[in-house]
Design a protein that fits this description.
By secondary structure, the chain is an alpha/beta fold. 38% of the residues lie in helices and 15% in strands. Helix 1 crosses helix 5, helix 1 crosses helix 11 and helix 5 crosses helix 11. The longest helix has 20 residues. Bound molecules: phosphoric acid mono(formamide)ester. The site of phosphoric acid mono(formamide)ester (CP) has 11 residues, from helix 2.
Length: 306
């Protein structure tokens, strides 16, 4: 297997195309491993990894922990709630104390954009960004690309629409960087208040009509309305958002073409997606979750070789 050009996974922006292909190819091998009766390999037997989560998570946190255990790493989990962060300990002191217990790698989720970058220049361990505020969520983009490739093959020339709350999403930026590096065309679609003005400079199409976006794309990656990050009102009501930007199964069936429906989770059922769409034959939402373990195994394995 080839080596990555980076020592940390801070964002997709820092990866080159070769890195992305290496991770996705390695993930294919690990997906075969996790579908065996014995789902474990000894690859990281001598490595200790700390999952340091300063923000809530279900999928990413469990997926990293399972990936680490499937690779035979030793694992410790840290949550800010219930820790000495509540007594005023800094991020750097917290992580340095964890590293003093002979930890080799830090997987971190933090609400501040750039927190993993700050850490990576100050500690000797590898750092993996598990989501930094509204900035990047690199392993989500990698598992999304892996899941798209499983359905569609090579993504060169494929059309991907990212629909929903782009402004508050870390998934959007990582997806844009990843998909463009893999040769796909990207559109973002949502209310103009939820699409940052600078996004056009990244070479993505911008749309405000969901039906047109669905007609255009091969894959609709639908994002959650992140009410917890919204300090002001970006649209009049959830009901109105759902009316203009929500997707239901009838809209997908009426397209008369194959379309792949994705969502990074958690879903606001009845807001960005109705249940009949989320659970329809178009949806690969649970495949994304399954693939997350294999992709994270690949990331951890490759970083440990650096
Ligand atoms: N997709 C994702 O990051 O989900 P969690 O917030 O549950 O980790």
């Amino acid at each position: 297997m080839t080596k990555l050009s980076v020592r940390h996974l801070l964002g997709i922006k820092n990866l080159n195309e070769n890195d992305i292909h290496t991770i996705l190819e390695t993930a294919t091998q690990f997906k075969e491993v996790i579908n065996r009766p014995i789902k474990k390999v000894p690859s990281l037997r001598d490595i200790t990894i700390a999952n340091v989560f300063f923000e809530n998570s279900t999928r990413t946190r469990l997926s990293f922990e399972l990936a680490e255990k499937r690779l035979s790493a030793d694992v410790v989990n840290f949550s800010a709630s219930g820790s000495s962060v509540k007594k005023g300990e800094t991020l750097l002191d917290t992580v340095n104390n964890i590293l003093a217990m002979k930890v080799d790698m830090i997987v971190m989720r933090h609400s501040s954009p750039g927190a993993p970058h700050y850490l990576s220049s100050r500690i000797p361990a590898n750092v993996v960004n598990a989501g930094d505020g509204t900035h990047e969520h690199p392993t989500q983009a990698l598992l999304d690309a892996f899941s798209m490739q499983e359905k569609l093959g090579d993504l060169t020339g494929k059309k991907i629409a990212i629909i929903g709350d782009i402004t508050h999403s870390r998934v959007a930026l990582s997806n844009i960087f990843c998909l463009q590096k893999l040769g796909a065309e990207v559109m973002v679609c949502g209310p103009s208040t939820l699409i940052p003005k600078h996004l056009g400079e990244l070479g993505v199409k911008i749309g405000h009509n969901v039906k047109e976006a669905l007609q255009w794309c091969d894959v609709a990656n639908v994002l959650r309305i992140q009410l917890e990050r919204q300090q002001i009102k970006y649209f009049p009501s959830l009901r109105e958002y759902s009316l203009y930007f929500g997707i239901n199964k009838a809209m997908l069936d009426d397209l008369n073409k194959e379309i792949v429906l994705m969502h990074p989770g958690p879903i606001n059922r009845g807001v960005e997606l109705t249940s009949d769409a989320a659970d329809s034959k178009h949806s690969i939402i649970l495949n994304q979750v399954e693939n997350g373990v294999a992709v994270r195994m690949a990331v951890l394995y490759l970083l440990a070789q650096q």
